[in-house]
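Request: Have a read of the protein record below and say how the chain folds.
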Amino acid sequence: MSATMVLQPGSLERFETPTAREPLWVKITLITIALGFFAIFLLFPLFSVFSEALRKGWGTYLAALTNRDALAAIRLTLLTAAISVPLNLVFGVSAAWAIAKFEFPGKRVLITLIDLPFSVSPVISGLIYVLMFGAQGWFGSWLAEHDMKIIFAVPGILLATIFVTFPFVARELIPLMEAQGTEEEEAAVVLGASGFQVFWHTTLPNIKWGLLYGVILCNARAMGEFGAVSVVSGHIRGLTNTMPLHVEILYNEYQYAAAFAVASLLALLAIVTLGLKTLVERQGRRQADESNTTENAS
């Protein structure tokens, strides 16, 4: 008897997804709601920021961005991201590798601690550093004796930024590395590869897109962080003001055009970050599809 299955007319309807059978008006309504929220909560605020920034003309806009305090805020923001992101990259890869590839006492505790900055308010994390390194803090007298300053200085900003951003890389890599397993690394070790060779030639190629995705998110948060940095910075013009803090000061001083000009620069950085994130996601999906195609062909 032949095992060939003959599909009767209309039998394909059983394989349709529930959304494919929804009436047209339902689809139009859902799409309209989604686009409406997108326009109201994303496009309109962005348009407002740029329109306010340019309301007094390009001269005022450029003057606000080339102001000495604005340039200092931009430099400090870039410096903070340039230091905190690589440190979080090292921590994230190390923590993800340890959690995904090994079993050890305290593993669940480490996973919980990695999520801590997600559950603690940034303001609270800033206050923790004030409690530790402030003038009346645990180490305040020792720091004063050795002429070292952390709070109301750049080191405090770096510590606060590192704290609020360190989960991003690790949290992106942990599920990815757990899903990949340890077979390839074990095979490389059996073939005589060293630990560095295993990481560079086996682990890194498998996680590179997830790693880049985590770095992009970490960098975006580092440049836009406000709460924790506001607590430890002291708001010293030209010294400890990052771009978000500089926007707040300008707005409180009723310099709206200058405030929106700096805010527009932050918005541009966010748009660039979003574009990079989209490219990384697309490239990662393309690589995954090519890998699946190769496996199916073999």
